[in-house]
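Dear colleagues,

For the upcoming journal club I promised to circulate an example of a predicted protein-ligand complex. I picked one with 5-O-phosphono-beta-D-ribofuranosylamine because it came up in last month's discussion. The inputs are reproduced below in full, followed by the predicted structure.
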Amino acid sequence: MLKLAVFVSGRGSNLKAILNSPNLKELIDVKAVISNKIDCPAFKIAREYSIGTYCLGKDDNCIAYNELSNFLVSLEIDLVVLAGFLKMIPSDMVRTFKNRIINIHPALLPSFGGEGMYGMNVHKAVFNSSAQVSGASVHFVDESYDTGKIIAQKCVDISDVETPEEIAGRVLIVEHKLLPYVLEKFARNKIIIGKNRIRIIN
Ligand code: GRF
């Protein structure tokens, strides 16, 4: 089983999609759900599945950022999944977990990524750009925002939308399929890391 730590900041719908995915039942084991927000709504979902929840930060009972890497090593985590986590991952953790941290981004990278590009900011930027497609990207995490190698993308037609909220709704449906798909491929060792390109094999 692939041992996962899932990092969240918000409602946790991607976490739920992972936990509910029938294809992942026998393949993944979510060992920890971690957030910088002590009252993160996604924690409720984790608790419903009896998964340990951990806060990050300086408060008592929270894991300090400089202890994060060791903590994940102690849990024998194979893969870290950022599902709506908004903070930068510490450099030492990026090094320790090289090619073992992935993020889901609600647009087609390398466009509409970078600092400040999260949540509705992304969808508003896509809407204002007049783009007729958007989608979701799963990528490796490196030491800056949204620049790691792209693992998988799925696009969605937005040619007829009238609001950024409509884009958000369509993209979220795609996210909930793409992330479980990628995790299944990791669990089955079907992700091939090439020099300039990540390949997924059948
Ligand atoms: C998703 O749109 C994800 O792509 C982005 O943050 C959002 C998190 O949503 N990184 P949820 O908390 O999984 O519902």
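Two points we might discuss: The first strand starts at residue 2 and ends at 8. The chain has a mean pLDDT of 97.

See you all on Thursday,
B. R.
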